[in-house]
Design brief:
This protein has 7 helices and 21 strands. By secondary structure, it is α+β, with helices and mostly antiparallel strands. It has 2 domains: about 100 residues, no CATH class; about 325 residues, 3-Layer(aba) Sandwich (Rossmann fold). The strands form 6 sheets. The protein has a 7-stranded mixed β-sheet with strand order 6-5-4-3-7-11-16, sandwiched between helices. Helix 1 links the parallel strand 3 and strand 4. It is globular, with a radius of gyration of 24 Å.
Length: about 450
């Protein structure tokens, strides 16, 4: 196996992807593995989501299976669930707007569920805690199995507000005093959003005003019209291109406050991952559609997918804003589709992404250059370095263990830890002493041409 020379190196605080001497960063993990994970689920509880909640509950075990692949098995978990129902509250108004619609049938009132964590009778706290105990035991604050209890939590009902505010609910959940104890200092944070409509986090309750020439009919199309901007007018019929979250809407919040809220909860972006199981962000189009119960056709956001579910034909609208939030966490996000009756694959991908927070050093050899094509399998060319946040210009290189050095790395095939990769190859690091707590280990490899 060949190692390429390392040029002079200095890591900036932004931790962007770095290419050095023909090598590119493929992993960055804490040198001392952090096995604590706070996992927040934001689940749509509007009228069309009962089947999606059931699919999430059924696929949850797949995510736990993936997380169990890390060294030491299942991490130390805190799991919380909130709904997308924030009633008629907004970020810009001190008090919620007047109630709209019929409560229990898509209507909205007050602060809704207010980002408060859900609980079941089998839980002793407002979140699930499942952490390592002495002698390989687990200490839990619930009875039954983790999969069973989460399944109960995930069924949050489908009588919530039809103006879904998942990002506002997420932000509130991270700061709601009722959720004290859920977030742990020093723990990694993973946020998973399940929704079949896009985010409509209100900047003002004025968006919920009665029908008018300016706002149009009181329905969720207002959320797209004022919460998304495209190359074409969002209020006209036809396909749309270049769509993204609106940045200067008078009615719907832009994404920056929500990114800031996540980073305020965990000041180091390397400790955060975000995921969304939502309607495909494209295609985006506006169509004329007759309102429920009949009447004059009005502009409506076209569904980005239609699929068969146990409850019948299901649909989802393009999650443009939610996809935009994930873009703020490159390399630490998973955008997946809700457009399937089986969410096993999305939960697999989300588990893989969360696994990276926990010190995953599996290598996807399909993306790496093979420097010894005559040998079996891909023989990658990699460098491994420890760098402290307090001294980013000082680099401690780790040699291959074949050198005889006490602090070293080796490439090993480990199907148990890396079952999803082609060669099951991982970087295994050996140390003779504990490294400083602010040390991170960076793995760089030569990519395939």
């Amino acid at each position: 196996m060949k190692r390429l020379g390392l040029l002079a190196l200095s890591l900036a605080a932004c931790h962007d992807t770095i290419v050095v001497g023909g090598l590119q960063e493929v992993a960055a993990v804490r040198s001392i593995p952090n096995r604590d994970l706070d996992l927040l689920f934001v689940i749509d509880n509007s009228a069309s989501t009962g089947d999606k909640q059931a699919a999430l509950a059924a696929a949850f075990p797949r995510m736990m299976d993936v997380l169990s692949q890390i060294d030491g098995g299942l991490p130390n978990l805190h799991i919380g669930v909130v709904t997308t129902d924030m009633g008629t509250s907004s970020s810009g108004d001190a008090l919620p707007a007047p109630a709209i619609g019929q409560l229990g049938a898509g209507g909205c009132a007050g602060r809704g569920d207010d980002g408060a964590l859900k609980r079941t009778p089998t839980m002793t706290e407002a979140f699930l805690s499942d952490v390592e105990g002495p002698g390989g035991t687990r200490v839990r604050n619930y009875s039954g199995t983790l999969r069973e209890v989460f399944g109960e939590l995930a069924h949050v009902g489908y009588t919530g507000c039809g103006i879904e505010q998942p990002l506002a609910a997420m932000k509130r959940a991270l700061g709601n005093p009722a959720n004290a104890g859920f977030l742990r200092d020093g723990a990694n944070l993973a946020i998973v959003i399940l929704a079949d409509e896009d985010d409509c986090s209100l900047a003002t309750g004025a968006l919920l005003g009665p029908d008018s020439q300016n706002l149009g009919p009181l329905d969720s199309f207002r959320c797209f019209r004022f919460g998304v901007e495209c190359a074409e007018d969002t209020n006209t019929i036809g396909p749309k291109t270049g769509c993204m979250a609106a940045t200067a809407s008078p009615y719907v919040d832009d994404l920056n406050p929500f990114v800031d809220a996540i980073l305020a909860a965990k000041s180091d972006a390397r400790m955060v991952m975000t995921a969304a199981i939502v309607g495909d962000p494209t295609p985006v189009a506006v169509e004329l559609r007759q309102p429920p119960g009949g009447g004059t056709p009005a502009p409506a956001l076209a569904h980005s997918c239609t699929f068969d579910s146990p409850a019948g034909v299901a649909v989802a609208d393009p999650g443009v804003r939610l996809a935009g939030l994930l873009e703020s966490f490159p390399g630490r996000s998973a955008l997946t589709s809700i457009c399937s009756a089986d969410l096993t694959n999305p939960m697999q991908l989300i588990g893989d992404s969360a696994k990276k927070l926990m010190g995953d050093t599996c290598l996807d050899t399909t993306t790496l250059a093979d420097v010894s094509p005559t040998d079996d399998g891909v023989q990658p060319s990699c460098e491994v370095a420890d760098i402290r946040d307090s001294a980013p210009g000082a680099v401690t290189m780790l040699p291959l263990c074949s050198s005889g050095a006490p602090d070293c790395y080796e490439l090993v095939a480990d199907a148990a830890v890396c079952p999803a990769t082609a060669d099951h190859l991982r970087v295994k690091i050996h140390r003779s002493a504990t490294v400083p707590e602010d040390s991170w280990t960076y793995i760089r490899c030569q990519l395939a041409p």
